[in-house]
Design goal:
- It contains two helices and eight strands.
- The model has no long low-confidence stretch (mean pLDDT 90).
- The protein is of the alpha+beta class.
Length: 107
């Protein structure tokens, strides 16, 4: 459970144990750097606050995205996340079926 709390505080966590894709939430820190030999994960969320849990925009490596998940390549090689957070939800962001996290069939 403690690893889940750390991941949740970062604003990302592995949705499926043993897989490298990350599902996104909202970070509780304004700036985070996770140093890794394969590449650092840098997270910027200047509006992070207890009353601002909603992601209004997100940039992954400088490019805006509406997806609510990150591919395996981000976990393996690192990158930069720039969160814009708000006290109100952006009800259009991340609502398309194509923006949903992948689903894996277990047989």
């Amino acid at each position: 459970m403690s690893s889940w709390a750390v991941f949740a505080s970062l604003g990302l966590y592995p949705a499926i144990p043993g897989r490298s894709e990350f599902v996104l939430g909202s970070p509780i820190f304004g700036s985070i750097v996770v140093h890794r030999t394969a590449g650092d994960i840098v997270i910027h969320a200047p509006q992070a606050a207890a009353d601002a849990p909603y992601v209004t925009t997100l940039k992954v490596n400088g490019k805006e995205t509406s997806r609510n998940w990150l591919p395996e390549s981000f976990a393996l090689h690192g990158g930069t996340l720039d969160f814009s957070l708000s006290t109100t939800a952006n009800k259009q962001r991340g609502t398309s079926v194509t923006e949903a996290p992948p689903s894996f069939d277990v047989k």
